Amino acid sequence: MTNSTTYENHLDANDSRWFAIYTPYKREKLVCRQLQKKGITAYLPVQQLVRRYTRKIRKVELPLISCYVFVKITKKEYIRVLETEQVMGFVKFSGNLIAIPDVEMELMKRILGEGLEINAEKQIYQEGDEVEVISGNLVGTKGRLCSIQGRKQFLVDLEFLGYTLQINIDPSLLRKVNNGFLIASKN
């Protein structure tokens, strides 16, 4: 019996792409420094916040997304990243190693450059939302979220040639579309 599920891997031999990696809690800065020492392009989005304690006020730099560091790598650097101390693995979407578009990384950098306090949360979907499939055989297909059937299964209406198809799909394979503009999901 063969498994018909195919997995995506966006690593490329020549073109370096952004990926997210997991780190233990409060080890993001250490991991970022270690990767940079290895010559790997690593980015840790941090924001400067003011914390008030009983006796003092202190400025602190905290990661925007806890336990995440972003790396821009080619296929040959993949193992070097995994061999780095405190790297727990790559962030995968339904088992797929999906690259983060350069546009989304640049947007994150620009937003952080504004100096505003930001709160990063996972994408929240609601019934009726316009969504686009971002991975698998249906990539680029747009539809409407009919119902949320659990944390890992959404029922989506997809329109093909005048017919409506309803499919169950993992939310990590979706991206919310708002008035024609894509809103990046954080998974």
How are the elements arranged and paired?
Elements: E1 17-22, H1 28-37, E2 41-43, E3 46-52, E4 57-63, E5 68-73, H2 78-82, E6 89-90, H3 102-113, E7 130-133, E8 142-148, E9 154-160, E10 163-169, E11 174-178, E12 181-183
Antiparallel strand pairs: 1-5, 1-6, 2-5, 3-4, 7-8, 7-11, 8-9, 9-10, 11-12
Description of the molecule:
The chain has 187 residues and is an alpha+beta fold. The chain has helices at 28-37, 78-82, 102-113; strands at residues 17-22, 41-43, 46-52, 57-63, 68-73, 89-90, 130-133, 142-148, 154-160, 163-169, 174-178, 181-183. The strands form three sheets. The protein has a six-stranded antiparallel sheet, with no helix packed on it. A four-stranded antiparallel sheet has the order 2-5-1-6. Strand 9 and strand 10 form a beta hairpin.
**Helix content, binned percent:** 10-25%
Number of strands: 12
Shape: globular
CATH superfamily label of the largest domain: NusG, N-terminal domain
Mean pLDDT: 79
Q: What is the CATH topology descriptor of the largest domain?
A: Alpha-Beta Plaits
- Report on the biggest sheet: 6 strands, antiparallel
Summarize the structure.
The protein is an alpha+beta fold and 187 residues long. Helices cover 14% and strands 34% of the residues.
Keywords, separated by commas or semicolons:
187 residues; alpha+beta; Alpha-Beta Plaits; SH3 type barrels; six-stranded antiparallel beta sheet; four-stranded antiparallel beta sheet; 12 strands; 34% strand; disordered C terminus
